[in-house]
Queue: 3 jobs
Job 1
Amino acid sequence: QVQLVESGGGLAPPGGSLRLSCAASGFTFSSSAMSWARQAPGKGLEWVSVIGGDSSGTYYADSVKGRFAISRDNAKNTVYPQMNSLKPEDTALYYCVKGVNQYGVRGQGAQVTVSS
């Protein structure tokens, strides 16, 4: 059974940084691409970034390119998005997702709020 547990959300000021974590279990983690998606209040689910199973490729939505960096540790079955230069419009519930887009199995989400 696929399980994804996000942690590390919270409040950050504009221009600040946060790093989320996603602990995965129930599947062969190193063989799976992993994505992050987010849902802002009143909006749909937005894909944010993806990383290949062997970290060979990373891709980002234009809205976060140059500010967010996704990485993974296959020994720990964990994937991390490092979020820098945060903006108020980054406020959302962030989900870890198994697969290459926002439509796979996802965790319960971690709230990120960017506000002064």
Job 2
Amino acid sequence: VQLQASGGGLVQPGGSLRLSCLASGITLRYYTIAWFRQSPGKEREFVSVIGWKSTDYSDSVKGRFTISRDDAKNTLYLQMNSLKPEDTAIYYCAARRRATSIYRYWGQGTLVTVSS
């Protein structure tokens, strides 16, 4: 099983990025999938999650980030708008079987740097 995150990079404050997470070895439509992030010196934190039809966001990104999935492409996305310097972090995608609570599969992370 592999989750391959991509799309990170350097962007100015107020800019946008779209992250992708391509899954192989599992069929994503059977999973709840999420994005987490970790900034230097901080613990990993929840960003957003998408289930069968529901989504949820951390308060810090609500209204700026949009999570989506394309099960036909076995891919998870995170559209990030109005980026702030405090969004700088390594972003990880993760998957858990529905009706379970543990994220069993994790991607390798993609670095997002928001700086002028």
Job 3
Amino acid sequence: VQLQASGGGLVQTGGSLRLSCAASERTFSRYTMGWFRQAPGKEREFVASISRSGRHNVYTDSVKGRFTISRDNDKNTVSLQMNSLKPEDTAVYYCRLVQPGGIYWGQGTQVTVSS
């Protein structure tokens, strides 16, 4: 399984970015997908997840109301729309797929929010 994340960049406080993650897994639609992030000097933390159907989403409290996770099972992609970005959102963002055979991570995409 290969996960390719993209969409990161530098944005000012209050700005928006949209991250995307493309999966090579042909059975993508069977698995819950997630986004995680890791800031310098900190552990990787959960950001959001989306169910197989896309109808059930979970967010960490700090991003509720600002971030939206979505998926397109026809295109094997999962996205993270990030609005009202804050400097504390600065991190490398990773997508994750968990299947019975293992846990797979994308390569990460850097998001930097300037104050």
